[in-house]
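To fix ideas, we quote verbatim one protein's residues and fold tokens.
>
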Amino acid sequence: LINHGSICSESVIAAFKAVDRGFFIDRPDDGHSGGEEVRYLNMPFRNGIQHLSAPGIYATALESLELREGLSFLNVCSGTGYFSALACQILGAKVRRA
């Protein structure tokens, strides 16, 4: 994501390094997905009813939001929680999770 220019700010880079996308996705069950590695590609992921956008989409959104410690952030209908987990990393230790 850094090499493709999707992320450039230190806080977003640190968030992506801290949050493992694989923890938010069940193991592929279709037998054709190339194994667990597919969970880490910069592409959308669907496994049954579970869906995550490509990491580059999350990166673009986080860079655009310009989140920083002390700001408020509300993520309604947060799906797997991956985007919220990335945002929490940026917002810092005093973030309140509902």
